[in-house]
Amino acid sequence: PGSMEAAADEEKAGNGHAEGPAAAEQGGGAQLRGCRGFLRRNALVVLAVSGVVAGVALGAAVRGAALSPAQVAYLAFPGELLLRMLRMVILPLVVCSLVSGAASLDTRSLGRLGGIALAYFLGTTLLASGLAVALGFIIRPGAGASALNAPGLGLPGAVPTSKETVDSFLDLVRNLFPANLVAAAFQTYATEYKMLLRNTTSGNVTWEKIPVGTEIEGMNILGLVLFALVLGVALKKLGQEGEDLIRFFNSFNEATMVLVSWIMWYVPIGIMFLVGSKIVEMEDIVLLVTSLGKYIFASILGHFIHGGIILPLIYFAATRQNPYRFLLGLITPFATAFATCSSSATLPSMIKCIEENNGVDKRISRFILPIGATVNMDGAAIFQCMAAVFIAQLNNVDLNPGQIFTILVTATASSVGAAGIPAGGVLTIAIILEAIGLPTNDLSLILAVDWIVDRTTTVVNVEGDALGAGILNYLNEKEQKKKEQELKEVNVEAIANSKSEGETSPLVTHKNQVSHTTSTADPESKESVL
Q: What angle do CA 183, 188, 190 make, to 5 degrees?
C-alpha cells in the first residue's frame, strides 16, 4: 500500500506540472471564445459602421477618376437596391405591426400610452424647434452671407412651388382619411393651384388663384397609420370573431420581420455604395463649406445638442436608467439612417434591434415606432427652424416675437406631415417661409447642402422615436408590476378571509362533530365522511 500511495503522489505532482501550460491555454481559449462571441452578437453593428467608413474611403478614392453621371449611377446601384428592399417592407410592416399592436393592448392601455406618446412627440418637437431658433440667433448663420448667390451654389429649378399655409394643414387632415386604401399605398393628396382670369364689371382684369386637389406619387403613410390603428381597435372589440384576423396580422408581421432580418445582412454593402456615390456626386465641396459652413455647423450642432443631451436627459428623467447604454444597442439603425436619409427606410431595422438588443416589448415597439416614424420629426424641426432663421438673416429681416412664435408652431405642426423620405423636410420649409412672409427663392441654397444636414436630421428623428419607445416600455412594465402587486394583495386577503370563515362556520363545526361521532362508531363511515 505504501508503494501505491507514493506512485499516486508522483502522478499528482506530474499532473500539477502539466496543468500550468494547459490552464494558460484554456484561459487564452476562453478569451478567444469571448471575443468571437462578442463579434457574433455585434456582427451587424461592426459591419454597418465598417460600411460607412469603407463608403467614405471608396468615394474619396473614386472622386479623382472624374466619372460620368452614368458611371456614378452604376456605382450607386447596390445602394439603390438596399433602399428599394427597405421601402418594399415598409407597407406590410407598418400596417401589420400597428394592427397587431393596437389589438394586443386593451383600450385603456392604448388610450394611456397613446396620450403619453403624443405628449412626448409634441413636447420634444417643440423643444427642438426652440433650440434651433435660439442657436440661429446666437450663431447667426445668415449674417453677412448676402453674397451667397454665387454660381454653382444654388440648385436651379429645384425650389418647390409655394403653397398656402391653410391648404397645407387641410391636406394633412385629408391625408388622414384616404378615399382609397389601395391608392394610399403609393399616392398622397396634395393641393395645387390653377390661375383663372376674371373680368370685373369696371373692365379690370384680375387673376384668381383657385386650389385644385391632385394625387402625387408617394405613400400616404399618415392615412395608413390611422386606418391600421382603428382596425386593430375594432378587431379587439369583436372579441372571439376577430381573433382569426388578429392571428393573421400577427403571422404576417412575424414573417415580415424575418424578411427584415435577411435584408439587414445586405445593409453594410448598400451603405458603402450609398455613401461612396454621394461623395463622388459632390461638385465643389470647398465652395459649399466656405459659403454655407456656418449654416451647416449650426444645424449639426443643434442635432448634436438635442440628440446627445436633451433626449437622453428626458429618457433618464422618466426611467432613471442609462440612456447611452440603451442607444448603444441601436448603432445599426443609426448607421442605416445616416446612409439612407430616410426614417421610413430605417423603421424595419429599428424595430428588429430595439426588440432584440434592448428587450422592448413587441406590443410597445410595433405600436409606437411606426407612428413615431410618421409623426415625430425632432431633427426635421431643428433643420426647418434653422433654415427659416438663416433665410431671414440672409434677407436682412429682423424677426419679431410674433414671427418667432409662428415659426415654432408651424415647424412643430408641419413636421408631423413631413414625409419620411430624403429631402422630405425641404418642402415643409416653404410652408414656414410663407407663414412668416419670407421669399422661397433662397430654398435652392438649403437644397444644395440638404444631403449633408439630412443625415444628422434622420439620425435624430429615429433616436427620438427609439427613446420614446423605451420610455413607454418602462412605464408599461411599471404599470404591469403595480397590477400584479395589487392582485397578490387581493389574493392574500381572500385567503385570510376564507380561513376565518372556515373557522367560524357552523356547517364546518357540524361536519367535524359528525366525523367525531362516526369515528368512534365505525372506521368505514369515517372514511366516507372524509
A: 140
Residue 163 makes CB contacts below 8 A (sequence gap 6+) with 191, 430, 431, 434
Which among 100, 35, 93 is positioned nearest to 263, based on CA atoms?
Answer: 93
Domains of the chain: 42-148+164-481 (1.10.3860)
Place of cell 462571441: 37
Other CB atoms within 10 Å distance of the CB of residue 292: 23
Give CB contacts under 8 A, 24+ apart, made by 322-326. 323/467, 323/470, 326/358, 326/466, 326/467, 326/470
Over residues 477-524, the pLDDT tens digits come to 988 888 888 887 777 766 665 554 444 444 444 444 444 444 444 555
- Measured CA to CA, the distance from residue 37 to residue 40 in angstroms comes to 5
Q: Which residues contact 150 (CB under 8 A, 6 or more apart)?
A: 287, 291
- List pLDDT tens digits, range 233-246: 899 888 889 899 99
| CA contacts within 13 A on the Cβ side of 514 | 12
Q: Classify burial at 105, counting beta carbons within 10 Å of its beta carbon; exposed 0-12, middle 13-18, buried 19 or more.
A: buried
Residue with cell 409606437: 368
CB within 8 Å of 375: residues ≥ 6 apart = 121, 416
Integer angstrom CA distances of residue 113 from 344, 374, 412: 22, 17, 21
Query: How confident is the prediction for the chain on average, in pLDDT?
Result: 79
Report pTM.
Answer: 0.74
Amino acid at 244: D
Query: Residue 131 phi/psi, 5° resolution?
Result: -60, -45
Beta strand segments in 165-307, E: 187-199, 205-217
